[in-house]
Design goal:
Main location (chain A): membrane
Largest interface: A-C, 88 and 77 residues
Organism (chain A): Flavobacterium restrictum
Low-confidence stretches of chain A: none
Mean pLDDT of chain B: 84
Chains: A mainly alpha, B mainly alpha, C mainly alpha, D mainly alpha
Helix content of chain A: 55-70%
GO molecular function, one term (chain A): NADH dehydrogenase (ubiquinone) activity
CATH topology of one domain in chain A: Four Helix Bundle (Hemerythrin (Met), subunit A)
Distance between the termini of chain A: 69 Å
Low-confidence stretches of chain B: none
Strand order of the largest sheet of chain B: 1-2
Distance between the termini of chain B: 97 Å
Largest sheet of chain B: 2 strands, antiparallel
Number of helices of chain A: 6
Largest sheet of chain A: none
Shape of chain B: globular
Radius of gyration of chain B: 31 Å
Number of domains of chain B: 4
Radius of gyration of chain A: 21 Å
CATH superfamily of one domain in chain A: NADH-ubiquinone/plastoquinone oxidoreductase chain 6, subunit NuoJ
Shape of chain A: globular
Oligomer: heterotetramer
Order of helices and strands of chain A: HHHHHH
Order of helices and strands of chain B: HHEEHHHHHHHHHHHHHHHHHHHHHHH
Structural class of chain A: mainly alpha
Strand content of chain B: under 5%
Protein name (chain A): NADH-quinone oxidoreductase subunit J
Catalytic activity (chain A): a quinone + NADH + 5 H(+)(in) = a quinol + NAD(+) + 4 H(+)(out)
């Protein structure tokens, strides 16, 4: 069953979760609905921060920091730069046909219903969490896992980034005019 | 020794053929003709050797050369069987063949392709020998098809004329219809007895106790169809008159004396098979009689000298089949031999006439040639008397025996055969009177050039005329003087005609036959000599004689029923079936194309649509996985 | 050490992720602006990441976080390339409305 | 010494020919063609001495595929046909100029290589690869060097390509299924399978589709006439002389032993299809205006008879079919070459525009006539031996089959003689017809000589193929 935290008897952790969750969802919605792309981007930044908050809540400090650096720091800056490069504002938004809206809403509802229904029906075992007290998510442990077990994928990730970099440079370079 | 001589016998004409094919042109006409003739004479001499030997020892010779085809349990050997029948056949094949080669030497001398003519003739003799001496049905089949091929080549010898080519093609295809019958007959025999060899076949049949007569009858019937094709019997006879398109020596050799008797040879050879199928024998007899009559009636009104002889040949072959059907194989063989003599003589004589008139074949434009061509006239007269059954000439004896046998078995058949022979007498003398008596009706130019043919042409005529006169002595109607029956006796399992003396009935019949012949001649004399009637022009022919003149329209009917049908069918297949099949295959491609055409509209580039589909798909998959787990 | 999930419950994280993901999907379908579409995709990615981390805590296993790490790397690369593409599209077409990007259709 | 050498020789030949350049290509190709013929004869000799000339090695471990080339009498007979015809075909093209001839001749050798591989392969997947490989060169040969309107040609050739490819895919499916059952593609392992009759039926049908299109049997023949007409004569020779035999060979080697129950159950139907092909092909051939199309339909009729022979499932039928395959291979190559010779002089393939050639060139006429006679199976030609044996086997099943199949000797004579009459005979043609050149003459004489030699003495070939056919026959009759 859905376990709704009782706000009256909520622990601080639960309250923090609720607040963070609300911020996350609200800013996500706002990202989508705001007409100005710059606003969207800023809402998205807030959304990412709240997700980082979730990570912190889950005691994943390293990830939270990385998340802020990568998403809020790098990716969102990229977005903002792009938006500014293109000089986008509200006028650029075209009229959306009704069928598009309908389709979007239908798929939103559908996917929500399917996912939630499945989740409810699959009756997950809730509440019995073990905590061995073992350290599993400190930077030290993560580093060991990453560089021992996931050595090769790690290297591949770096190659991927390199390739992406080169690709980006190539793509965004202004093409020489054809002679 | 025997093997070597047999090989010489078979291969001499083939060698002649090869030399003429490869070197004929450079050797010149005379040499190539000489080679052609000599090679056949060599065969003739070799045949004589075997004839002497077999006539003395009465032992057939089997010569096996090499394994040819293997089918299941049958190993077909390429071998020869020289016995009474084959040697007898070889005698007149090579003998008459040699004479006709000699004749052609002069007859074809003006033709630029004389060497290939001799090559084909030699090849024909080779295949004919193979047909006759083969020790099994497959070697016979080689010869059988081979002579068909040579007949094709020789009918179409003047290949620039497409009508001649059509005639050649027609002959070949009609022969092949018969060949299919023969082939099927061979298959059935092979399936039944696991052998195709004559000797072992005979042993198998005579030794067997319970024979499958049903299948044997079918086999016999199929073989008979083969014989029909080759020997021009109803319904496959129409090619033979058309085959007269070939040079006259060819008509004499192939289409009168030798090849067309192959069917009779085959049936005689396999007499032990046919004896087991009495129904088929009855069919053979009836077909033979009908053919004799129908061909004779058509022969009554023909104006082309060679056509008359062609129908006469068909008619005579019908008589032979009648004899075969009645089980009187030796009688048929006897008639084959005498017929070979007088018919070859008649054809060669007509050739001499045509030669003298520079290619004119229409009897309405002949007449009065008696004085200009005395030797031709006399020899042809003798042959005509022989074919008409005038006593003491060879034809009298052989034809009389057939009529006798027919009378013994069935009166209607005898009546039909008798009518046919009366007609024979009539149209033969119609031919004689129109050609040789009264005044010449051709152009003055032709009249000026009228002359007797050279010695090379007349010599064979004389020889054949002599043979046509005295040929009857080999089988006189008196048992003690009947050499042929005794000679052939070992071949036959049962004696068809009881040896009997001549009673009063027989004498009566003989007299009747002679009277019939004389009446036929008399009518012809009155009509064409006394009254000097000249047959009407083509357009003026009316009534029943028009039907006869147009050969009962059989060619037209065949054309309409078979040739036209098959051609229309071909057109239908080509234009309708082929295109629709093709369209069907293209249809598959079209359907795929159409699906693609409409399918591509879904791929319209709208990411929204893609995503929507993606979401739906995702939901579907997740739901499916989830529901499947339940 | 006390497991934080005892207080919040994994199911809440799942709901949160699902809704976040759906918002992302909705955004992609709803908006025509390529940049916003991109942002929506980022939201979807983050929804998944969040779930990874939650389950990592649930199982007390570092692997989940490692995956998040990789997915961030991929996301970074993707955004870089994607935005570069958008820039060049904008240069060529003068707009980044995805309705205009129909050259691939058959 | 084993058969892989032959394949290597042909492949190397193809490469060397390509590298030799346009001028030398034809001669190099001819050299390699002759070398492979020599190699085949040497191999044949080794085989007859009882040596093992098969070759097998592991090729792919997962899935379990071997590079297995097995040479028995049947395979060797077909290989002999291929390697004997290849030099003849190459030699026959000497009178023509082809642009980019190095590629042309290399493709011929490559095709020869693929077909030889098909005849030798005893591993299902390897066989399939060779089978499809043979399609590629003929596609290019027909497309690039073909004649007629380029658009029409493309249509016909692409149709042929897709059609045969689609058919073959079903065969691949069948092979995959068999592999799943047997765990190996090797023919010996596949033979050991005990398939239920319904499985056999499906496998039979899958194979049938592939082979019926390739052979082709009616009603799958629609690609044939057009491709024959459009392809250059060399391509037509390769197609009709050898490639069709791939289908027929495969019926004997793969289809019948793997699915004998189905073959037995549908025996009358299968023979009926073959015989229908005989009659239909002959009748359609009657009224063809194009010489090559006529020959294509005659080919349809002949392969109909051959396949009817194979489906009799008797030793005679199989033996007759193999003999007839070889004979037909030679005769059809000869006849297409005749068409090419006429085309070189008159620039036409329409029969109506020919005629009156005989008077100008007696040698050519004689050779042509001999080929025509061989085609109508006159006794003493090789075709007669094959046709007779096949018809005999048909008569063992049912006399009516023999009668209906035997119509080929009537109808065949009809359309062939009609064709001969209107191409060669008649009033002398006004256009000059130069007599055959030495090259052309030698090619035709060679073909005719082969046909007549084996027509009189087919024993060597009969002895070569009979043991392997008996083996296949025991395989066919293993379940009863």
């Amino acid at each position: 069953m859905i376990h709704i935290p009782d706000l009256a008897h909520a622990t601080p952790v639960q309250i923090v979760f609720c607040i963070l969750a609300i911020i996350t969802l609200a800013t996500a919605f706002l990202t989508i609905f705001s007409r100005n792309p710059i606003h969207s981007a800023i809402y998205l930044v807030i959304c990412f921060f709240s997700i980082a908050g979730h990570y912190l809540l889950l005691n994943a400090q390293f990830l939270a920091i990385v998340h802020i650096i990568v998403y809020s720091g790098a990716i969102m800056i990229l977005f903002l730069f792009t938006i500014m490069l293109m000089n986008l504002n509200e006028e650029h938004e075209v009229h959306k046909p009704r069928i598009t809206r309908l389709g979007a809403i239908v798929s939103f509802c559908l996917i929500c219903i399917v996912l939630i229904a499945i989740f409810i029906n699959s009756k997950p075992i809730v509440g019995d969490y073990d905590s061995s007290g073992e350290d599993f998510q400190s930077i030290k442990v993560l580093g060991k896992v990453l560089l021992n077990e996931y050595m090769v994928p790690f290297e591949f990730a770096s190659i991927l980034l390199l390739v992406a970099m080169i690709g980006t440079v190539l793509l965004s370079k202004k093409e020489k005019l054809e002679k | 020794m025997n093997t070597n001589i047999a090989l010489v016998l078979v291969l001499a004409p083939f060698l002649g053929f090869l030399i003429n094919v490869f070197f004929g042109k450079s050797l010149g006409k005379s040499v190539s003709g000489m080679i052609g003739t000599v090679s056949v004479v060599v065969s003739f001499v070799a045949t004589l050797y075997f004839f002497m030997q077999i006539n003395n020892t009465k032992q057939p010779l089997s010569i096996a050369l090499f394994d040819w085809i293997q089918i299941s349990n049958i190993k077909v050997n390429f071998g020869f069987l020289l016995d009474q029948l084959s040697v007898l056949w070889l005698l007149f094949v090579t003998g008459i063949g040699a004479l006709i080669h000699l004749y052609s030497f002069s007859y074809m001398h003006d033709d630029e392709k004389m060497h290939s003519f001799f090559a084909y003739l030699n090849l024909f003799i080779f295949f004919m020998i193979l047909l006759v001496v083969g020790s099994n049905l497959l070697v016979l089949f080689i010869g059988w098809e081979g002579v068909g091929l040579c007949s094709y080549l020789l009918i179409g010898f003047w290949y620039k004329n497409q009508h001649f080519n059509d005639a050649a093609k027609k002959a070949f295809i009609m022969n092949r219809i018969g060949d299919l019958g023969l082939l099927v007959g061979i298959f059935i025999i092979g399936n039944l007895f696991s052998t195709l060899d004559y000797v072992s076949l005979k042993t198998a049949i005579t030794g067997a106790t319970n024979l499958n007569t049903y299948w044997i009858s079918i086999a016999a019937f199929c073989l008979f169809i083969g014989a029909c094709g080759k020997s021009a019997q109803i319904p496959l006879y129409t090619w033979l008159p058309d085959a007269m398109a070939g040079p006259t020596p060819v008509s004499a050799l192939i289409h009168a004396a030798t090849m067309v008797t192959a069917g009779i040879f085959m049936i005689t050879r396999l007499n032990f098979v046919f004896d087991l199928a009495p129904q088929v024998q009855t069919i053979i007899a009836i077909i033979g009689a009908i053919t004799a009559l129908v061909a004779a009636t058509i022969g009554l009104v023909q104006n082309d000298i060679k056509k008359v002889l062609a129908y006469s040949t068909v008619s005579q072959l019908g008589l032979m089949f009648l004899a075969l059907g009645l089980g009187a194989y030796e009688v048929a063989v006897f008639h084959v031999i005498t017929h070979a003599f007088f018919k070859a003589c008649l054809f060669l004589g007509s050739g001499s006439v045509i030669h003298g008139l520079h290619g004119e074949q229409d009897m309405r434009k002949m007449g009065g040639l008696k004085k200009a061509m005395p030797i031709t006239y006399i020899t042809m007269l003798i042959a005509s008397l022989a074919i008409s059954g005038i006593p003491l000439f060879s034809g009298f004896f052989s034809k009389d025996e057939i009529l006798l046998v027919a009378f013994e078995h069935s009166i209607p058949l005898w009546v039909v055969a008798s009518i046919a022979s009366i007609m024979t007498a009539f149209y033969m003398f119609r031919l004689m009177y129109l050609t040789f008596f009264n005044e010449f009706r051709g152009t003055a130019e032709q009249k000026h050039h009228l002359h007797e043919s050279p010695a090379l042409i007349t010599f064979p005529l004389i020889v054949l005329a002599v043979l046509a006169t005295i040929g009857g002595i080999i089988s006189l109607p008196f048992p003690e003087y009947n050499w042929l029956n005794g000679y052939l006796a070992p071949l036959f399992t049962k004696v068809a005609t009881e040896e009997h003396g001549l009673g009063s009935t027989e004498y009566l019949l003989m007299t009747l036959a002679v009277i019939g012949g004389v009446v036929g001649i008399a009518i012809a004399y009155i009509k064409y000599n006394k009254q000097n009637t000249v047959p009407a022009e083509d357009a003026a022919i009316t009534g029943f004689s028009k039907v006869l003149y147009n050969k009962y329209y059989v060619d037209e009917i065949y054309n309409f029923v078979f040739v036209k049908t098959i051609n229309e069918l071909s057109r239908f297949f080509r234009d309708i079936v082929e295109t629709s099949l093709s369209a069907l295959v293209f249809g598959f491609g079209k359907v795929t194309n159409e699906i693609g055409f409409y399918g591509k509209k879904v791929q319209n580039g709208s990411i929204g649509l893609y995503l929507f589909a993606f979401v739906l798909g995702l939901c579907a998959i997740v739901s499916y996985l989830f529901l499947a787990q339940q | 050490m006390n497991n934080i999930l005892n207080q919040i419950g994994i199911e809440n994280y799942i709901f949160l992720s699902v809704i976040l993901f759906c918002i992302g999907v909705f955004g992609v379908l709803y908006r025509r602006n390529a940049i916003i579409v991109f942002m929506s995709i980022e939201i979807m990615l983050n929804a998944v990441n969040l779930l990874f981390v939650a389950f990592s805590t649930y199982h007390q296993d570092a692997q989940g976080q490692v995956f998040v790490f990789f997915s961030m790397a991929v996301a970074a690369a993707e955004v870089a390339v994607g935005l570069a593409i958008l820039v060049s599209i904008f240069r060529n077409l003068g707009s980044i409305t995805i309705d205009n990007l129909k050259n691939l259709k058959g | 010494m084993n058969v892989s050498l032959l394949l290597i020789l042909l492949l190397v030949g193809a490469i060397v020919t390509y590298l030799a350049g346009d001028k030398l290509a034809s001669k190099v190709a001819l050299f390699f063609g002759l070398a492979s013929l020599g190699c085949t004869i040497v191999l044949l000799n080794h085989y007859n001495l009882g040596e093992n000339i098969s070759f097998i090695t592991r090729w792919i471990t997962q899935p379990n595929v071997s590079f297995a080339l097995k040479a028995d009498g049947l395979s060797l007979a077909m290989v002999l046909l291929t390697t004997a015809l290849t030099p003849i075909i190459i030699f026959s093209s000497f009178g023509n100029e082809y642009k980019n001839s190095k590629a042309f001749y290399a493709l011929i050798l490559f095709m020869s290589f693929a077909m030889t591989g098909t005849f030798l392969a005893s591993d299902g997947l390897l066989y399939y690869i060779f089978w499809e490989l043979a399609l590629i060169p003929i596609y290019f040969i027909a497309l690039i060097w073909g004649n007629g309107d380029a658009e029409d040609r493309k249509k016909a050739v692409v149709k042929f390509f897709i059609y045969t490819l689609a058919g073959s895919l079903f065969m691949l499916v069948a092979f995959v299924y068999l592999y799943l059952k047997a765990g190996s593609f090797l023919i010996e392992d596949l033979y050991k399978l005990n398939l239920s009759s319904s499985e056999q039926l499906w496998i039979f049908l899958a194979f049938f589709l592939a082979y019926a299109i390739k052979i082709p049997l009616i009603p799958f023949h629609t690609w044939q006439a057009n491709v024959y007409q459009k392809a250059p004569t060399v391509g037509t020779m390769l197609l009709s002389g050898i490639m069709l035999k791939m289908g027929l060979y495969s019926v004997i080697r793969w289809q019948l032993p793997l699915a004998p129950l189905a073959a037995k159950e549908y025996l009358p139907v299968l023979i009926g299809i073959g015989i229908a092909g005989v009659i239909y092909g002959s009748i359609v051939a009657l009224r063809q205006k194009d010489l090559k199309k006529l020959l294509a339909y005659s080919s349809l009729a002949h392969v109909g008879l051959i396949s009817a022979g194979t489906y009799t499932l008797t030793l005679d039928g199989l033996r007759g079919s193999v003999l007839q395959m070889i004979a037909h291979g030679f005769v059809v190559v000869g006849l297409f070459f005749v068409a090419e010779i006429i085309f070189r002089r008159y620039e036409t393939r329409t029969i109506a525009e020919m005629g009156g050639i005989r008077a100008q060139t007696p040698k050519f006429t004689s050779l042509f006539l001999l080929l025509v006679l061989a085609s109508v199976a006159l006794p003493t030609t090789f075709n007669f031996v094959g046709e007779f044996t096949v018809l005999y086997s048909l008569s063992q099943i049912n006399v009516w089959f023999a009668v209906l199949g035997g119509t080929t000797i009537i109808l065949g004579a009809y359309y062939m003689l009609k064709m001969f009459q209107y191409t060669m005979l008649g009033e002398t043609n006004k256009r000059i017809f130069a007599d055959v050149t030495a090259n052309e003459g030698i090619t035709l004489v060679l073909i005719v000589a082969v046909l007549f030699f084996f027509g009189l003495y087919p024993k060597p070939i009969i002895d070569l193929i009979t043991p392997s056919l008996e083996e296949i026959l025991t395989q066919i009759n293993r379940i009863n």
